[in-house]
């Protein structure tokens, strides 16, 4: 039986490669956390999402 990567392991490995994007998204959300609204940090979120998708394809 081949050694398969569990989905959560794949997610962890991919997100580990996107720490800069995750930090930027987190800073955006925290900057005005009392007034969070939809699409407030859409640009930062899309960068994080794109990084994750690219990283997950490499795993």
Automatic annotation (TrEMBL):
Cellular component, GO annotation: mitochondrion
GO biological process: mitochondrial respiratory chain complex I assembly
Top-rank lineage group of the source organism: Eukaryota
Protein name as annotated: IMS import disulfide relay-system CHCH-CHCH-like Cx9C domain-containing protein
Species name: Penicilliopsis zonata CBS 506.65
Lineage, highest ranks first: Eukaryota, Fungi, Dikarya, Ascomycota, Pezizomycotina
């Amino acid at each position: 039986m081949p050694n398969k990567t569990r989905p959560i392991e794949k997610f962890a490995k991919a997100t580990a490669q996107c720490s800069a994007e995750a930090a930027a998204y987190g800073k955006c959300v925290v900057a005005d956390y009392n007034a969070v609204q939809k699409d407030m940090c859409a640009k930062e979120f899309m960068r994080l999402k794109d990084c994750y998708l690219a990283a997950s394809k490499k795993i």
